[in-house]
């Protein structure tokens, strides 16, 4: 039977809590870059961004630096279209077919329920040829 030393469980819990606290304090989980090889304008992200247009990063991302976690990068806003998951730095998204194509970003483990946004954004998509909103 494995022997547990006094305080070892408490130390493990403290280390795990410290890591979670650092993430919760707004530390970016991923940094988006407008040029290959982590150059150009950058946007640190610490949570889901359903539309990169207001941040002037829509279809302009060429490389990403992953600080922690796994991140879903999607071609269309609201996490639609083709998506890829990155878990490490990608200096050239063109190798993955995603250079200047990303419109939304979210942690890969998150679930996105678009029902909460339908009413708010219904007018925005009213005239779409495919009728989706």
SSE topology sketch:
Elements: H1 8-24, E1 30-35, E2 39-45, E3 63-66, E4 71-76, E5 80-86, E6 104-107, H2 115-125
Antiparallel strand pairs: 1-2, 1-3, 4-5, 4-6
Question: Can you give keywords for this protein?
Answer:
3-stranded antiparallel sheet; 6 strands; alpha+beta; 133 residues; Gamma-B Crystallin, domain 1
Structure description:
With 133 residues, the chain is of the alpha+beta class. It has a single domain, classed as Gamma-B Crystallin, domain 1 (Sandwich), CATH 2.60.20.10. It contains 2 helices and 6 strands. The strands form 2 sheets. It has a 3-stranded antiparallel β-sheet, with no helix packed on it. The N and C termini lie far apart (58 Å). The relative contact order is 0.16. Residues 8-22 and 115-133 have low confidence and may be disordered.
Number of strands: 6
Q: State the distance separating the first and last CA atoms.
A: 58 Å
Radius of gyration: 19 Å
Largest sheet: 3 strands, antiparallel
Under CATH, the homologous superfamily reads Crystallins
Helix-and-strand structural type: alpha+beta
Strand content: 25-35%
| Order of strands across the main sheet | 2-1-3
Instruction: Pick out the low-confidence regions.
Output: 8-22, 115-133
Question: Helix amount, in percent?
Answer: 10-25%
Oligomerization state: single chain
**What's the CATH topology name?**
Gamma-B Crystallin, domain 1
